[in-house]
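User: Can you help me understand a structure? I only have the sequence.
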Amino acid sequence: MNKIFEVPLYAYQSNPDQSAPAPVRHKVIVVGAGPVGLAAAIDLAQQGVEVVVLDDNDKVSFGSRAICFAKRPLEILDRLGCGQPMVDKGVLWNKGKVFFDDRKVYEFDLQPEAGDQRPAFINLQQYYLEEYLVDRIRDLQAEGAPIEIRGRNKVEAVGTHPDHVRLEVETPEGSYIVEADWVIACDGANSPMRTMMGKDFVGRVFEDNFLIADVRMEADFPTERWFWFDPPFNKGQSALLHKQPDGVWRIDLQLGWDIDKEREKRPENVIPRLKAMLGDDVKFELEWVSIYTFQCRRMEQFRHGRVIFAGDSAHQVSPFGARGANSGLQDTDNLCWKLKMVLDGTAPESLLDSYDVERIHGADENILNSTRSTDFITPKSEMSCIMRDAVLDLSEHYDFARPMVNSGRLSTPCTYDGSPLNSADGLNGPATTRPGSACPDAPLGDGYLLPKLADRFTLLTIDTDAPDQMDVDGVQVTRLALSVKDDPSLALKRRYLGDATSAVYLIRPDQHVAARRDTFEENAFRQAVRRATGKE
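Assistant: Let's start by predicting it. Here is the structure, written out as tokens:
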């Protein structure tokens, strides 16, 4: 059994704030040391922002939890210095199969078009990601970055004020008071921060329960995502099988609504279910077991004054589709550059309102897709069940029915259509790179596009001219000049030019497109920078 989650990685140590005569004020405090909180802290520290992470635990999470990481979050983790360890350790996969009863009805391939540095998906236990993020914090500390993580520092009370947030923190040596200009709450689905501030979720809780188990076994199943509707070993329900590193397999079994959760988690009840699925001849051992209930809910607002919620503390979706940790990483990627600009005084505080607009849009998109998946997987009426089963039967023989099968439509990056930071589209180019879109990668002669984009605003020019530098009201914009000749595969042309012969893109620090035109027009791009920084 993997012991990583039993070893304190950020053990409790006294800190000077505990004995200070008056509460110490920090720039940013992150509450919660899960993947989202750690990612936020690293992002800020890499930009030179002083940040303290408070967590009531002192080690990584127990059990695999989030396991499926999509290409876009891997690209974000690349910028945080953790992408390569994830890919090196993770199980790469792109194929999936869908079964109905005892037969395979079809299979799919998620392999992206050639020209991306990162794969479509990897499977990796959440505790490995947390370990890599903590290791990255240690590396940043060794380099002198202003980042600190405090284990067994539990926030017990929160007070909000116009210019700061006040926290009461409990430790093994007693409590202390600390203040922050800004607080990012990343303390999970049961967020104590959310409760202490009297906030709640809106949305749906589905009347169904799923058993999830990490099973260590030697098996000859291929490295694919297998999903069963109404399988012989779990009649009337569904099941999911995924491979993870270290000979661990993730199994999800639908149980229904009216169950005794504690009873169902006992090994004497779990093991017979797994034997029915895997067969009596497969030897396995249980590493972790849990039960979850589908929830598709979010806070009405993510920003509350100087407290900003991200990840599961702000929104929850069912696990089918890999939208939990993946969307949380996109939350912090959206937030941290904006918070940095506000702290530096190069953008108004109102820029943070766009975090609400954009990431609520992302949460609603995820909730919509997750709800549709849940409704298909767990039909709640006889007619819905008849319709679903008919779609599954047809999909075995007819291509037209397969897009209607929904065993958990997998996570894709959100495009911020309608964002107040977008400028009008000035290029009749590919829809995938319209304003609000995340930049797709493309191979270049000496590497890939995304690593070449700066951690600030970038003016990407393709076969046209523009200034190498621009200063727009204190915001620095750096040019990256490319030509379609830099990419013999023509992925750059397909993804950024289409039928156009040249293009200029204004790209935000989170690698989302803010504006695009066919040629550089200084006034238009200066206005686009102001708009993208909340000044218009």
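Now, to help you interpret it: The chain has twelve helices and 26 strands. The chain has a mean pLDDT of 92. Let me know which part you'd like to focus on.
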